[in-house]
Design brief:
Length: 264
């Protein structure tokens, strides 16, 4: 899936996003853009407002889950099931390029539940770790936004291929690792135990995931900017916002896990 928008410097460079949710825009709106006349064009402000809305839903749900959901024996299984459900929902939204906010709100609620319960569990073992992970997540996001704004880091086809391949590999390994853990109890590149030993490969996996997640924002910012220039319909701002939400959640999970490794 490629963009029909021009790249930097007017050179017509085609750059794919590392986020399949946002990259889907290029394929699904190309014909629509030519037919509808774009009476309601998407703006950056539209994306910002919708992103903040989804983040607030995720955050409020997380806070409620933190204080309401008990730390019972069944919680790990419920979290694993919710995580798989969130992955499936994210794939459906991205592959079908859904612009209806209802399933996106559902995803935000599910992720809020996951973040709230899991974060509380991490906080009980490692006090202060949640605030560190939250600060780190938004710090990385704002840092990459500033670097993109200053054009110190540019989205290029080579970067896109590298980041896309890395992220897809990480997601695939994470899903397999989770299924193996649920079936056998064995832990691999991602350690689910809060106090168990962590091997060197787990550290490397978490660091690579964080770096890939950070650079994915550069590609996402680029695609959003070019989509606005192309005058895509305003309703696609929801899909852009959802893509940014998935990136932030991805980064938070891996930062939280890495911080727990360091503090063991």
């Amino acid at each position: 899936m490629q963009s029909d928008c021009e790249g930097y410097g007017g050179e017509g460079v085609t750059v794919r996003s590392s986020n399949p949710v946002l990259n889907r825009l290029d394929e699904t709106t190309r014909a629509e853009s030519r037919v509808l006349g774009l009476a309601e064009e998407m703006t950056v402000d539209d994306v910002v407002v919708r992103t903040v809305a989804l983040l607030l839903i995720t955050g409020v749900t997380g806070v409620v889950a933190w204080f309401v959901v008990p730390q019972a024996v069944w919680v790990p299984a419920a979290l694993a099931g919710s995580a798989l459900a969130a992955i499936v929902l994210a794939l459906v939204i991205s592959l079908r390029a859904i612009t209806n906010p209802v399933p996106m709100v559902a995803y935000a609620v599910i992720e809020g539940l996951l973040l709230g319960v899991a974060s509380r569990a991490f906080e009980l073992v490692y006090p202060g770790i949640v605030s560190q992970a939250v600060a780190g997540t938004f710090g990385v996001f704002l840092g990459m936004a500033l670097l993109y704004r200053a054009r110190l880091i540019r989205a290029t086809p080579r970067m896109a291929r590298l980041v896309i391949g890395t992220l897809f590999g990480i997601v695939a390994i994470s899903v397999v690792n989770l299924v193996v853990y649920l079936v056998t109890g064995r832990q691999g590149l991602e350690v689910y135990s809060l106090t168990g030993e962590v091997g060197g490969l787990a550290y490397v996996f978490a660091i690579v995931a964080i770096i890939a997640g950070a650079f994915s924002f550069i590609l996402d910012f680029d695609l959003i900017e070019r989509s606005v220039r192309a005058g895509r319909p305003r309703r696609y701002a929801w899909l852009c916002a959802f893509g940014l939400l998935t990136g932030l959640v991805f980064l938070y999970w891996h930062l939280l896990r890495l911080l727990s490794y360091v503090r063991r």
